[in-house]
Amino acid sequence: MNPSLPAVLGIDLGTSSVKCVIMDRRGQVCASAERSYPTHSPQPGWAEQQPSDWIEALRAAIAELRSPDPSMIGGIAAIGLCSAAHIPVLLDQADEVIRPAILWSDQRSTAEVAALASTHGRQLEAISLNEAGCTWTLPQLLWVWRHEPAVLARVRLLLSSKDYLVYRLTGMPSMDHGSAAATLMLDAHTKTWSPDLTAISRLPDSAFAKLAHPLAIAGKVCAAAARSFALPKGVPVVSGTLDSAAEMLSCGLLAPGAAGMVRLGSAGGIMVVTEKPSFNRGIITYPHVVEGVFYKQAGTNACATSLKWIRGLCRAMRGADAPAPSYAEMDRLAAQSNPGADGLMFHPYLHGERAPYWNPELRGSFTGFDARHGWPQFIRAVMEGVAFSLLDGLSMFRRDGLDMTSAVMSGGVVKSELWPQIITDVLGMSTRTIRHGDSALGACMLAAVGAGIFRSVEDAVSVCVQEERGLRPNPDAGALYPRLFARYQAVGQFLDTMTRQHKQPH
Known about the structure:
The chain has helices spanning 51-66, 71-74, 110-128, 137-147, 149-153, 161-170, 177-181, 195-200, 223-229, 243-250, 304-318, 327-335, 375-399, 419-427, 439-450, 457-464, 477-503; strands at 6-13, 17-24, 29-36, 48-49, 78-83, 88-91, 101-102, 157-160, 175-176, 186-187, 192-193, 211-212, 217-220, 236-242, 259-264, 268-274, 284-287, 294-300, 345-347, 365-367, 406-410, 430-434, 467-471. By secondary structure, the protein is of the alpha+beta class.
């Protein structure tokens, strides 16, 4: 193939949309397309999606890539995938989806989490290097067993959302190590299913798919998938991994070092690479794409989601027929406010919270507002509140000696002119962004390495990863934000205490 022609297709199945990217052999993004799908909340705290909506969105995105130049798709040498973590798909004997997929942000399994922590807490920590929480697949399965036992009895196969797409593309069921870790049933030391943990799920052993390395060829595009998605038959499909791991690859973070990653998607997170397979309370541990390496994540549930939420409020205030403000307009409004939002503070607990509280009942707040405050202060407070939530996660890393002195920022938020600088100021460290540094590019890189276009992930990084811009903390923020962060933590701890007391019987 001519080096200038398209080489690989990367598919990123995110929390709210699927993004498809075509990357050539020189690491350049040639084309991209994105399609969204709905999240359903049949009860407060629930979050579900229909896998059929993912399929339709993927078809539409691929069709958009084909429309200007069919050779863009026809010439691909491999396909790589990644997806949001902790989204299980349950299939029956006819390969039909049994029930909607429960998302990582779903909070329904609080009772199951408490029971797991009580009866199997130390076992989970020792084997999986993680602890029970509503975000994980295992307590979600226990909720299904408790409330929908007939559903669990029909399960023939458990897959992650990404591996469901791989199965639809190839007809071959498998699950990569990262996606398996997100079920809370992987032995992190051996990268095999743990019989002790899978037994807790009440699923038969046969329901657990064969495990695969993220760079392994999971199969080839089968005839049915070629017809369904208008893809060339026989193209190798690389197993892929979690979107966070793919994003670390796209940002060139392959080994422990001073630099970590600030991930700014629908959810947010602080991540660092480590060689030590250890359990850290309140911090998630996943296997890295690089063999023998792990990465740690302290996540916040509502990052870009928080700005999307207040953007919706802005639109509603303008009237039903008015368009929502653009994100550039929101940047301009927030820039009209002083740092610190003139005393207004936001806690972004729209879906409960993970690090540092792991409290599904926790809810957000605005505090300190008065008659002076308008949209500029409210929007800036949301941006600063998310940044403080990230700093809360970083504080947990520092508690355990996992500090970082600089960070790569990734995700859609980096498109903002203002928000990345606010995050840089709040974290108090230099940051940088990578051109196209997102999980979709990481999926492309996985495909290119798995198909032999690049010799290794290190080779792929040397070709594909290009620094875009660097930011340094504003000296004027050095005195302001530490003081505000102390207030942020005090209010957060108060909210956490109040919600936990509220749950206690009187």
